[in-house]
Amino acid sequence: MIFGRVKPLDAIIATAEKKSLHRTLGWFQLTLFGIGCVIGTGIFVLTAAGAQKAGPGLMLAFAIAGAICIVAALCYAEIAAMIPVAGSAYTYTYSTMGELLAWTVGWALILEYAVAASAVAVGWSGYFTGTILNQFLGVHLPSWLSAAPLALGGAPGGFINLPAIVIALLITWLLMIGTTESARVNAVLVAIKVTALTAFVALTLPSDYFSTDRFNPFLPAGVFGGFGTGVGAVGAAATIFFAYVGFDAVSTAAEETKDPQRNVPIGLIGSLLFCTVFYILVAAGAIGTIGGQPIMGPNGIPFPAGSEELARECALPQYKDALVCSGEALAHVLRTIGWSGVGNLLGIAAFVALPSVILILMFGQTRIFFVMSRDGLLPERLSTVHPKWKTPHIVTAMTGVGVAFAAAFLPVGQLADIANAGTLYAFAMVAVAVMILRRTAPNQPRSFRTPALWLVGPLTIVGCVFLFFNLPSAAMLVLPVWGAVGLVIYFGYSRGHSHLGRGIVEVHETH
């Protein structure tokens, strides 16, 4: 095979059983894990940015992103149940297309999870300093302690984002002490988020303020905004895709799941369907009550979300109440229609809930590191499992420090798009892997078979490529640059230390 070093399925499963993680999670916890990551970032952080890109077409953007994720989830469900080990798209690629491509996928997932976790940590910091400290406690944290020096759109004079560091390190500690403990805390946070958003839908959709006139024009920037612009309904979908990474994190937990052949597919597809419907309802409530038209530039194209030009427009009196100018969009909607108390509570819910998103993202990243280390592609000490906590504590600590550092000092304004580049690549590779396994391992037990794979598989690949080329051009460039760095590491270290390359391959004993 041109790429070589394909790891046999039996070897992957045997390796996992020899040096395994503790199985503690059921289908309900997995579904909550998926909901915990999906509901949070997209609704609480990206609603305003999505409306600026697509206007009322934000609802269509959620549907587009959700539809692509659902076909991808069907592919994930078959292969995650078939290969119930940690590693997600990386492991699946290793078993079908070989070590080199598997390394590129794992390297892309590291980018995805690290960037996303750092971005959400900074988003949480904004809610903490603005809603909790300023509004409720009357405490004003100086800008040099609450904003990064390079933060896009951040406060001038920033030096370090201290709240973002604190939340990243707290989540790291929680992940180190145990998966079950993490899942229990996440279940509480998911309940808070779902309750808050259900209240939002109940107060906006039947509201006297709701008017269908606000959905006209429905697509002010069109369906396609143009190559590299990142606007229009599809451009907004490419950004909003960031919020759907939760179902990918579910598959990374396959090795810690009881009865994975049954529970992983339920967790994947159930969380996606729930969240997609919820997203569309919330977007309809926000736009129908206060409107969601983007602020257009002189060329008839919306100003880029998070740009200086948009910030200047939002400072004008006529835009002070605009949805696209709000830093806490849903709370702002409720305050505008006379539900200030509930709006403040929703802001608190966002502050409480965003840590669950960071938790899931960091959980996913540590498991990718863990399985790459277990294969010898990264130093093996990283895959050490703590004797008491039963978690990969070394790599968890390293990940937490990296996320905290990035959140403290690096620009995060456009990182959702950057994270998406790695995500879309990994998802497309999973679809390829499922189709290859249908031919190379047709008799391998499959508790879940993707329906109409001949259609669903290609649709997933086309959908991911389609969204990738509707990202802003700068975000599209990040993936090949990051990939080039990864290839240097692979040929400099990983290829020579690979267990498979050195002939260390464990297989099941025959009885």
TrEMBL record:
Entry coiled-coil feature ranges: none
Entry keywords, A to Z: Membrane, Transmembrane, Transmembrane helix, Transport
UniProt keyword Transmembrane present: yes
Subcellular location field: Membrane
Residues that span the membrane, as ranges: 27-51, 57-79, 100-127, 147-175, 187-206, 218-245, 266-290, 345-370, 391-412, 418-438, 450-469, 475-493
Membrane topology designation: Multi-pass membrane protein
PANTHER family: CATIONIC AMINO ACID TRANSPORTER 4, INNER MEMBRANE TRANSPORTER YGJI-RELATED
Name of the molecule in the record: APA family basic amino acid/polyamine antiporter
Origin species: Sphingomonas endophytica
Lineage per the UniProt record: Bacteria, Pseudomonadati, Pseudomonadota, Alphaproteobacteria, Sphingomonadales
